[in-house]
Design brief:
17 strands; four-stranded parallel β-sheet; 2 domains; elongated; 310 residues
Length: 310
């Protein structure tokens, strides 16, 4: 029986980086581990993922665990159907970045991921909200949007996580600075305005963009969002930001302003697209908030990334 309990459905995005190779292997492993599988789906068209998950989530389906194979985009595309629901998520990380899995210490190998599903523990994690759109990792405007537009599918398949910094460099070279106003409805910070910005990001998880740290002490069950604004300053400042992105120490750079809050409203000039977990599905002005303990996920027994809230 999976750690989430009861019957499990398996849905794998076979268009993800390693999905097609993994589906049958995961099927065999989960059966060997006595996970009671019901319906199994190998999805070649990612557009079918939401409707398939909706079917599995139906109240009369009898499934208590949803095993999802794919990357961050796969999780983000269906998380609206999982938020505040009875089904527990088991994750097979098959994408390029796998930042959500990385945040939760879920191993990338199919054998270890299946073992986690069979023998792990269930924790509750927060989700971010951009308006009424749930997200697991990060929402951003500015450079993040440009990097998404510049991200090459061939590069994702062939050079993996290195595709993200390559896309970021391309986006930086054609970036136009913008201004933004941040308003904090909870009153925990004064409203603030920034000029000549490179990016504003609102992080829920610990990692984004292929392993870059949102902030050194960011978490996914701390009931808060990590907001940062990067100013387009002198070249050496930008190099400093790039140097420390992997560790999260970039927030100590003088070009970066950081805020921790449960709610924030972002207004920009000009109006801008919002990148939500790699998809451009909203525009500014936009309200962001945290949804406490909105998702149940199976993680390794040794993971300390989140805990179960009873």
């Amino acid at each position: 029986m999976p750690a989430g309990g009861g019957r499990a459905a398996l849905i794998v995005n076979t268009r993800s980086r390693t999905g097609e190779k993994v589906f049958f292997k995961a099927l065999d492993l989960l059966q060997e581990m006595k996970v009671p599988l019901g319906a199994t789906y190998a999805i070649r068209d990612p557009a079918r993922l939401p409707e398939t998950v909706r079917e599995v989530m139906a109240d009369d389906s009898g499934y208590e665990t949803l095993i999802l194979g794919g990357g961050d985009g796969t999780v983000s595309s269906v998380v609206d159907f999982l938020a505040h629901k009875h089904v527990t998520l088991g994750l097979l990380p098959l994408g390029t970045a796998n930042d959500f899995a990385r945040t939760l210490d879920i191993p990338p190998g199919v054998e270890a991921a299946c073992d986690t599903i069979a023998n792990g523990k269930v924790v509750d994690v927060d989700l971010g909200l951009a308006g009424d759109n749930y997200f697991v990792n990060v929402a951003s405007v500015g450079l993040g949007v440009g990097a998404t537009e510049a991200l090459n599918p061939w590069a994702k398949r062939n050079i993996g996580a290195l595709a993200y910094p390559v896309a970021a460099i391309r986006a930086f070279l054609r970036h136009e600075p913008f201004s933004a106003r941040l308003v904090f409805p909870e009153g925990d910070h004064e409203p603030v305005e920034h000029e000549r910005l490179l990016q504003v990001a609102v992080g829920n998880g610990r990692f984004y963009g292929g392993g870059m740290v949102v902030a050194p002490d960011s978490g996914i069950d701390d009931r808060s969002l990590d907001v940062y604004a990067i100013t387009l300053g002198r070249s050496r400042d930008l190099f400093g930001v790039a140097r420390y992105l992997k560790s999260g120490d970039f927030i100590r750079n003088e070009s970066v302003s950081q805020y921790r809050t449960p709610r924030v409203r972002l207004e920009t000039d000009p109006q801008m697209a919002v990148n939500i977990d790699g998809e451009l599905v909203a525009t500014t002005p936009q309200d962001f908030s945290v949804a406490d303990n909105a998702l149940k996920v199976i993680v390794p027994q040794a993971s300390t990334a989140a805990r179960r809230h009873l």
